[in-house]
Amino acid sequence: MAPKTRGARKREEGEDAGGKEAGKRGGSKKTQRRGKKYIGAHVSIQGGIWKAVESCVEMGGNCFALFLGSQRSWKRPALDQKAAAKFQEQRSLHEMDPAHIVPHGSYLMNCGSPKPDVFEKSQALLVDEMSRCSLLGLTLYNFHPGSSLGLITAEQCVKKIAGAINHAHQQVPAVVTVLENMSGQGSTVGGRFSELRSIIDKVRDQSRVGVCLDTCHAFAAGYDLAAEGGVKAMLDEFDQDVGLRYLRAIHLNDSKGKLGCNLDRHEDIGKGCIGISAFRDIVNEPRLDNIPLILETPGRPGFEYEEQIKLLYSLCKKPAAPHTRRTSATVRLLHRLARTTDLKHSFTGKLIQQPHWALLSDTHLVPARPQSALQAGTEEIKD
């Protein structure tokens, strides 16, 4: 049987995020701390929502995204509290910061829909999924803003999206709603950073709204990440139009489509039209320190998430080791410490010979000759 694509696996995730009862927990494999860069992927919740943490760790990630339930239905079984407790236990065990876990909203939602029934169901699902975030101890919730379907103006669509967010904020405390930029396909809102800013401006509590930048979406919408300095230019424009203080996550995806194609077609890192140089710039961009960088690529045999995470970390520039110039006095001191001297053990009184530097590592070794004589020896080499 041919292996399923990652997209198919994601669509087939279970109806109940609680999943089956977990087996005995194995030993802890803590997430690796790699400086200020956090790289991971969108992981499955099959077998239990707590499995998402384990999947992230196994692939070498230290941040991740996940769905909170089935993508096929507007209504899902309530999240089991025992499953939620296991998730929090695993997150704590692997020392994962809630700010580096970014649940992804259902693709069924359209909080800008002009159709009353779809809008009402979308608003209810937004509240439900944010409530699940609270139960899991998570602070972020990422979703696609919405579409006018060509039946209302973009301004009217923006107003409806902001209204849904304000309603959800009233129903669910603390969780931050994270808007994702879009590719500009059809009548979707959010292809331009200015559209995201328009939504934010209409949110009453702007401390509870953020943005997730998707690299494929940005490129498809016309932001040229493939150009030299393209990543910096995009972030500069985002800072001007929206504000970097709102940036909560990055979705790392290459693009099957060309610049400005408006197509949401993800490709593996370095295999698409954006190219590897842009991703090198992203992982070395200091403004993205401590921001979760999350893969949503299709994957292929031998180049799945684990390999792509390794690739991205390999692109991180390692700071050069500080060069220390030794003075002539230091060099002579090192030579002197390499010589041996008569030492005796303070407990046994046994006379032994050790290098002078043994005095620094064994407190039971003391000079057989007076300490003043040893000090006098070191004073001889002052410049």
Automatic annotation (TrEMBL):
Similarity field: Belongs to the AP endonuclease 2 family.
Domain Xylose isomerase-like TIM barrel: 54-314
Residue spans of biased composition, Basic residues class: 26-35
Keywords annotated in UniProt: DNA damage, DNA repair, Hydrolase, Metal-binding, Zinc
Protein's name in the database: Xylose isomerase-like TIM barrel domain-containing protein
GO BP terms in the entry: base-excision repair
InterPro entries: AP_endonuc_2, AP_endonuc_F2_Zn_BS, Xyl_isomerase-like_sf, Xyl_isomerase-like_TIM-brl
Recorded GO CC terms: mitochondrion; nucleus
Region (Disordered): 1-35
Keyword Repeat: no
